[in-house]
Amino acid sequence: MAKITSKGQVTIPVRIRQAMDLEPGDDLRFILEPDGLRVRVIKQARLSDLFASLPATRPYPGKAAIRQATGQAMGKIQAELSRSGS
């Protein structure tokens, strides 16, 4: 049992949220049918769900190597900007 607030909000009881696997950020779609109402849960995609979904095309060189390569690239950009007078 739940009451609708003046803003049209409803608190879904814990047992119902658990049974429907509802989490913060999920959407509910309300579908009117001739014999009543159907509620469909629309789960939000999470970035962590995508982890390892694509195969690695090359080995990870490590954080230190990436930082060094980034620093070198930034240095080249800075040098080019200094030469062009920007």
Keywords summarizing the entry:
86 residues; alpha+beta; two-stranded antiparallel sheet
Question: Can you walk through the features of this model?
Answer:
- By secondary structure, the chain is an alpha+beta fold.
- It has a domain at 8-45: Pemi-like Protein 1, Chain: D (Ribbon), CATH 2.10.260.
- It is built from two helices and two strands; from the N terminus they run αββα.
- It has a two-stranded antiparallel ribbon.
- Strand 1 (27-33) and strand 2 form a beta hairpin.
- The chain is elongated, with a radius of gyration of 26 Å.
- The mean pLDDT is 90.
Strand order of the largest sheet: 1-2
Describe the biggest sheet? 2 strands, antiparallel
Please estimate the helix content.
25-40%
| Computed structural class | alpha+beta
Q: Using the coordinates shown, work out and report the CATH topology of the domain at 8-45.
A: Pemi-like Protein 1, Chain: D
Spans with pLDDT under 50 lasting ≥5 residues?
none
Task: Tally the beta strands.
Answer: 2
Taking the alpha carbons of the first and last residues, their distance comes to 66 Å
The helix tally amounts to 2
> Could you say which overall geometry the principal axes of the C-alpha atoms support?
elongated
CATH class of the domain at 8-45: Mainly Beta
Strand content: 15-25%
| Secondary-structure element pattern, one letter each | HEEH
Average predicted local confidence, pLDDT = 90
